[in-house]
Fold this sequence. Notes:
Elements: H1 5-29, H2 38-46, H3 50-53, H4 56-71, E1 73-75, E2 78-79, H5 85-99, H6 121-128, E3 135-140, E4 143-149, H7 150-158, E5 161-162, E6 165-166, H8 175-179, E7 188-192, H9 197-206, E8 212-216, E9 227-229, H10 231-234
Parallel strand pairs: 7-8
Antiparallel strand pairs: 1-2, 3-4, 5-6, 8-9
Amino acid sequence: MVMNEAQRIERFESAYNRIDHGLGDLLREQADKRKHAFASKVRIAASRYRRIARHSDFLLEIGELRNAVVHNRTGDDLFLAVPSESTVVELERIEQEILAPENVEKRFLRKVIVLQPTHSLAEAFDLIRGDGYSRYPVFEDGRFIGMVTSNGFTRWIAGQMKGSRIEIDASKVQIADILALDHRRDRVTFIARSALVDDVEALFARNKSLEVVLITEHGREDQTPIGMICPGDLAMR
């Protein structure tokens, strides 16, 4: 339904006010008790939350437009500045993104194949055949000890070449042998299923060597993974 001018202004001001109050709540959560103008709230919140930083330029322009809408009236129903319908719709969309942020369980929970160091190479290949992923967490006695990757498998197999031949009894090779070459223990971190996607983006931004974020019920390394996130997964937002 096409909005008329009065509807656009009403929805614009309502969304603006909700965002203004929501940003204030975020700052209070961070123990910032001072009162800030809208533009100041946007800049401070953008420095702390990536989901807000993505839209900071738009929100700053919205602040200027709101001032023009509120203060530049020629009469009760006459405005010199009126937001377009697309601007109103975009503002409402951004409002949902920044005030009701997405958590990881909505999009990233999936079956994660977990290997054990005593699994043979043959058993591991049976588990991961057709899986399509390239990283697999390894757990021993219920606790995370490392991550093996397709690169690790390839490097280990290449090391067994004799001339142009490869002779391997995959039933006698253990994942522990692969893990010795490709443990990647320090390139993995854990988060709870309640964590925000914004939090994961911040983890990858702070640690450029981070390759995998594993999701468990409470973010502990002694819990079974229920999801996995790699940097490329976030790029598909």
